[in-house]
Amino acid sequence: MNKRSSLDQPLYNTVRSLILLKLRNGEWKPGDKIPTEPELAKLFSVSVGTVRKAVEDLVSEQVLIRRARIGTTVSTHEKYNQFSTFFNFSNRFDSEMLIEPKLLSFKKILANKEIGKSLGVKGGEALFVIDNLRLIDGKPTMFDRIWLPQRKFTQLTQNEFENRKGSIYSLYQSQFMMTIVRINEQVEAIQAPEFVRLELGLKKTDPVLKISRYAYTYGDEVVEYRNRYVNTSISLYQNEIGLRE
Amino acid sequence: MNKRSSLDQPLYNTVRSLILLKLRNGEWKPGDKIPTEPELAKLFSVSVGTVRKAVEDLVSEQVLIRRARIGTTVSTHEKYNQFSTFFNFSNRFDSEMLIEPKLLSFKKILANKEIGKSLGVKGGEALFVIDNLRLIDGKPTMFDRIWLPQRKFTQLTQNEFENRKGSIYSLYQSQFMMTIVRINEQVEAIQAPEFVRLELGLKKTDPVLKISRYAYTYGDEVVEYRNRYVNTSISLYQNEIGLRE
DNA sequence: GAGTGGTCTAGACCACTAG
DNA sequence: TAGTGGTCTAGACCACTCC
Predict the structure, then answer these.
(1) pLDDT per position as a tens digit, A21-36
(2) Which domain holds residue B63?
(3) Closest residue of chain B to A59, computed from CA coordinates
(4) Residues B233 and B129 in one domain
(5) Do B60 and B138 have their domain in common?
(6) Which residues of A touch B181 (CB under 8 A)?
(7) Same domain flag for A113 and A57
């Protein structure tokens, strides 16, 4: 392939899409080593430079991991990898935090109109609702209420959720082939609702951070919706934008 | 330059630093067109490909703007450019917002220990403290208290601040050669302090979002510290992380 | 028509890992 | 020692802008 016709998208975007397709299909699975760059170039009939551009983009999007002299692998949600990017909290002393999860409840419900809209499912469809508490350095700090479409997580059990190894997104990935690749959050300050107050040990007028998060897998498909309530006198939400020199 | 000695940093990082140096020195100013890629290649004695890599990095960091067939220019904080990246608020309907600033007070003070530490200056050094309100769609929504080291903003007057064209960062840039290239924020939920309550029209127990922001220029130098208080029943803080397909 | 950044190719050497 | 991604070069054509 020596040229491209005008009005086409760049060739490396096509290559990028082809790689994403293989990931979506499960042809290359999380943790797998994908073919080397010369192999990919041959496979897609483009030059190595073009493959490299496509892979670079996917690396910067944290879908792939490139390691010199070892190879390129598909990202997983296992501990210690870059998917902790999705957890941007720190304590007030910039020190390490001990985080312990505690499952509060695990139920099946039918979607009402509002939640259905958030998850892109019809009202009346079956959902899981999971209440999950996190203790930071021993103190109950973060309350998560998570909604999942049952259709995408068939056979998920309370036991499986509670006794997962690693993060929640790691569970989605290893058991349901659902890799979370993007999140979108809206942050606001509210007075803690009662069900949160009780768990976090707060008074009626105490403010909490409320984070409404949509989590997406490949193809911009919403997989999870969650409301997170945080006692920010213990743990702060961090954000950084711009140049790092 | 055909090879690089081992243990060196990559050549394109060197080129990137050389470009940043010219920006820091003011040799290329915000809004300027910088030399073309072949010219840069000649200037730094590297190949065009290496220059392109360095420029690509600076573009993704929003320091430079590349436009095909026109040239590469230095970012400015003017309206409508990408530095609105630093303003991640939306209203609750995802519609356009009308934002009007209103200066509340403009004072000179001496740094106490705490603020001094935040700004990297000694206690007792002269600072500006500026209280600035923002009305969104006519409603007072956002209260900013801004600290600036007077040393870096000599001759800044209330009149100049109040009658600036464009954003505050645009003022820093055009009048003081201070380009903000990175911000770091800590977000928490608190009960509005009285001076905020009065301006935002809130009750004593109403929660607000508090955002503590450090703003940096080239060389990782803190230029501004501000505390922002937001009534999130009007305007939400947005954040997005990960893959965009 | 000259010049620009956008895209793409082809091929080189490097440092290091794995076997 | 073979193979990998990391880096770097040289040069090509493209679509479009500006003069």
Answers:
(1) 998 888 998 888 999 9
(2) 11-74
(3) B243
(4) yes
(5) no
(6) 242-243
(7) no
Burial class of residue B103 (count of CB atoms within 10 Å of its CB; 0-12, 13-18, 19+):
middle
Q: Which nucleotide is nearest to A66 (CA to C1')?
A: D5
User: Do A172 and A94 share a structural domain?
Assistant: yes
Considering only CA atoms, which of A72, A142, A145 is closest in space to residue A106?
A145
What is the number of domains present in chain B?
Answer: 2
Judge if A150 and A213 occupy the same domain: yes
Question: For the domain that residue A143 is a member of, what is the CATH number?
Answer: 3.40.1410.10
Structure-token match 């016709």, residue found: A5
Asked if the structure places residue A102 within a domain, the reply is: yes
| Chain B residues within an 8 Å CB radius of A209 | 187-189, 209
Q: Which candidate, A79, A76, A80, A97, places its Cα nearest to that of A230?
A: A97
pLDDT of residue B130: 98
Task: Output B87 or B123, whichever has higher pLDDT.
Answer: B123
In whole angstroms, D3 C1' to B14 CA is: 29
d(CA A193, CA B83): 36
Angstrom distances, CA of residue B149 to CA of A203, B8, B118, B162, B225: 39, 37, 11, 18, 9
For residue B107, tell me if it sits in a domain. yes
Residue located via tokens 């920006």: B23
Asked whether A105 and A128 are in contact (CB, 8 A), the reply is no
A232–B189: do the CB atoms touch at under 8 Å? Answer: yes
The verdict on residue B245 lying in a domain is no
User: What is chain A's length?
Assistant: 245
Given the structure tokens 């390691």, which residue do they identify?
A67
Say whether pLDDT at B127 is over 90.
yes
pLDDT digits 0-9 by tens, A180-202: 888 999 999 999 999 999 999 99
Question: What are phi and psi for residue A23, nearest 5 degrees?
Answer: -70, -45
Q: Is A54 helix (H, G, I), strand (E, B) or coil?
A: helix
Q: Are residues B89 and B204 in the same domain?
A: yes
The helix (H) or strand (E) run that includes residue A62 is none
The answer to whether A59 and A97 are in contact (CB under 8 A) is no
Q: Which of A219, A236, A241 lies closest to B86 in CB terms?
A: A241
Tokens of A52: 């490299």
Report the C-alpha gap between B165 and A217 in whole angstroms. 42
Contact (Cβ atoms closer than 8 angstroms) between residue B104 and residue B133: yes
CATH of the domain at B22: 1.10.10.10
Local structure of B63: helix, strand or coil: coil
pLDDT of residue A224: 97
- Domain membership of residue A5 (yes or no) is no
Asked if A187 and B20 come within 8 Å (Cβ–Cβ), the reply is: no
Torsional class of B80: left (φ above 0), alpha (ψ -120 to 50), beta (otherwise): left
